[in-house]
Design a protein that fits this description.
The chain is an alpha+beta fold and 145 residues long. The chain is built from 4 helices and 6 strands, in the order H-H-H-E-E-H-E-E-E-E. Strands 2-1-6-5-4-3 form a 6-stranded mixed beta sheet.
Length: 145
């Protein structure tokens, strides 16, 4: 049986460097894994598809600009939830399709989609801006096509 004197120390050294590498690697991708915006747009889209104003409102900023058929203005989060609830009641979702998503270098994101209710189509636009390191909906528009 052949035993190399340095092999045990070499193995420990390799394991040591491997652990250091994995430590740095995991720290560098950790923000990507824990970034709250990864599932954010999917949750917003799901809330719109379900016509769930309460689920959607959890992503509203403290004030939000809303444009709906017959209603336009800047509203508090609570008022906005009631307004969207009323919209979803009057125009229940049959479908919602995302046409485009994007972001700016400043961290803002947008979603453009088509909301279908009964026989009507609405161009939908959402603008999300970072506030206290959290993306929140600043603008929400449903405009009839």
């Amino acid at each position: 049986m052949y035993i190399c004197k340095g092999s045990n120390n070499d193995m420990r050294l390799k394991v040591f460097f491997l652990l250091i590498f994995l430590s740095f690697f995991s720290q560098s991708i950790y923000p990507l894994i824990t970034d709250g915006s990864v599932g954010l747009t999917e949750n917003i889209v799901a809330a719109i598809k379900a016509g769930n104003s309460k689920a959607l409102a959890q992503y509203f900023s403290t004030t939000i600009e809303i444009t709906l058929p017959g209603k336009e203005g800047t509203f508090s989060k609570v008022q906005a939830e009631m307004i969207i609830k009323d919209f979803f009641t009057k125009y229940p979702p049959a479908a919602f399709e995302v046409n485009q998503k994007g972001s700016s270098s400043g961290g803002s994101q947008f979603i453009i989609g088509t909301y279908k209710s009964n026989n009507k189509l609405y161009k939908t636009y959402l603008l999300l801006k970072p506030i206290d390191k959290q993306l929140l909906i600043q603008q929400l528009q449903f405009e009839e096509n």
